[in-house]
Every structure is written in C-alpha cells, then in structure tokens.
Specification:
2 domains, 5% strand, globular, mainly alpha, 301 residues
C-alpha cells in the first residue's frame, strides 16, 4: 500500500506539472503527502521526505535571473575552456567579430543582458561554435576559416545569439532540475534521503548544473531548437541589415557529415538548409554585402 501511494504521489506531481506552475505543483504534492501521513496511509517520515522533494521541485524551477544566467554561463565557459584554448593570435579579428555581435545584439529583442555579449575565438581547426547562458559566444578558427563573407560570419554569430535569447540552455537546466527533483521523491520516500533538508537537496541540483550545461554544449540541442535558432538568426540578420540568405551560404560551406563539431551536435546542413529555405523569403533586405567585402578581407588576414 505504501509503495502504491508513493507512486501515485510521484505520478500526480508529474501530471500536475503539465497544467500548473512548478510552485503550485510542489504545494499540491506537499499537501498530498502530509494528508497521507496524517491519516496513516504512509508513515510520517516518508510523508516528510516526499514533502521535502516536492518543495525542492518548486525551488528548482524558480525564475533564473539575468545575473544567475550570467554566472551559470561563466561556469559553463570555464568548463569549455578546459577542453579548448582561447586564441589571441589576431586581436583585430576578435574585435571585428565582437563588433558584428554587438551590431546584431543591439538590433535584437534582447539587446541588454547582465554582462553583455562577448565573442572569443577558440584555437581549434574543428568546425564549431558554442553559446553559453549570459552572453558567452565561442567560435573555432576552423569555422571562421570556412566563412566567405562578413554576412556568413554574422550568420554564425546570429545563430548563437538566438540560442542565448531563446534561452535554450536555461530551459534545459530547468527541465533537468525538475526531473531530478521528482526522481529524488522516490529515493526520499524509501528513507534513503530522510533527514535531508530542502537546502541540501537543491544544492545537489545546483551542483549538477555545470555537468548538465557541459553535456548540452557537447551533445547539442534538439533538432527543433536548432531550427528555431536558425529561423531566429535570419530575423536577427535582417533587422541588422545583413543578408538572411547568408545563413544558407554558411550551411552550404559546412561538411555534409562527420563525427566532430557541427556534424556531431547539429542536424545535417541539408536538413537545416531545407528548414531555412522555407522562411528565408519572409525576410527581405537590400543586399549591401559588397560594402563589407574590404573590411572582411582585412579582418581575415
């Protein structure tokens, strides 16, 4: 009987999450556990353990502030730089990429974030780029060397800005933290976690954020999120005066397949091109790319 009640309360928490806020879900699950404990259906220690986990669900899903988002991103960036090194071989190129980034950001729906947007170059021939929460953008030398125009570079940066502004990483953190909290409910109910307070439980979740984020940037986002970032990138390019079709240009320059970089973490270029072609004509802009040819050539020397 006790096991059945635990399972029912856990499932109830999951189903409630589909229609209510996580704070409301936690409150209802908490009440349910205490009622079950008071009536003797389950023992009070089990009820208390379930309540602790239910409150942890609510705590885990609290709105992440821009400052928290920045510090989460900084921790992810630190982990990333344990694998890659920053390349400082061409300060003018780094400044050039940042000027492109700032132009896109200031013409975007979210121009202001806690510590601004920043681009750094990774010393790697791998074709890849990363964006962490809070505005950290990393582009490999391999990907930069693949670009054939400033608009193509802008497309790469716009795609990463889109991931940041759409909060794909933050959404993944929230989902993972809530899932972990619900899973801990079962552990707590067995008595294994009895005696742990809410702060201790939520601390476990917070400590796992770095690992979760590292997994995200290594394994990639979902196909739908990548398509969403591409669509948003074309809108950002248009609002800044870049040619939105530059995204397709850049995708055509990427390897068709592979086991590293973009090939490992993204849908195939062909899939992304097909997706982009569905909406690129919705974004109209006068082609002024020729005016940027000289400065692109100068920056890429």
């Amino acid at each position: 009987m006790k096991t059945k009640v635990i399972i029912i309360l856990t499932i109830f928490a999951v189903l409630t999450a589909m229609i209510l806020s996580c704070q409301a879900m936690a409150a209802i699950t908490d009440v349910g556990a205490q009622v079950a404990g008071a009536t003797g259906v389950i023992d009070q220690n089990t009820a208390d353990a379930i309540s602790v986990s239910a409150r942890a669900v609510g705590s885990a899903a609290e709105q992440i502030t821009p400052e928290q988002e920045y510090y989460i991103g900084r921790a992810v960036a630190a982990n990333l730089l344990g694998t890659y090194r920053i390349w400082n071989g061409n300060a003018n190129l780094t400044n050039y990429l940042n000027r492109i980034c700032w132009a896109i950001a200031i013409n975007s729906p979210r121009p202001d974030i806690f510590n601004g947007y920043h681009v750094a170059i990774l010393d790697s021939n791998e074709i890849n780029a990363f964006a962490t929460p809070g505005g950290h953008i990393f582009i490999t030398r391999g990907l930069i060397n693949t670009a054939r125009s400033e608009d193509a570079l802008a497309a790469v940066i716009a795609h990463e800005i889109a991931h940041i502004q759409l909060q794909h990483s933050i959404k993944a953190i929230k989902n993972s933290r809530v899932t972990n909290a619900i899973m801990v409910t079962g552990v707590a109910a067995t008595g294994a976690a009895t005696g742990m307070n809410v702060n201790e439980l939520t601390s476990v979740f917070n400590e796992s954020i770095g690992e979760i984020m590292l997994t995200l940037v290594s394994n990639g986002y979902s196909r739908d999120q990548e398509f969403e970032a591409d669509n948003t990138a074309m809108a950002l390019l248009t609002s800044t005066g870049y040619n939105p079709s530059a995204l397709i240009e850049m995708l055509q320059a990427l390897p068709a397949s592979g086991s590293t970089g973009f090939s490992r973490t993204h849908p195939t270029p062909a899939q992304r091109i097909t997706n982009a072609q569905r909406t690129v004509n919705n974004h109209r802009v006068t082609d002024t790319s020729s005016a940027r040819t000289a400065r692109f050539a100068a920056a890429m020397r």
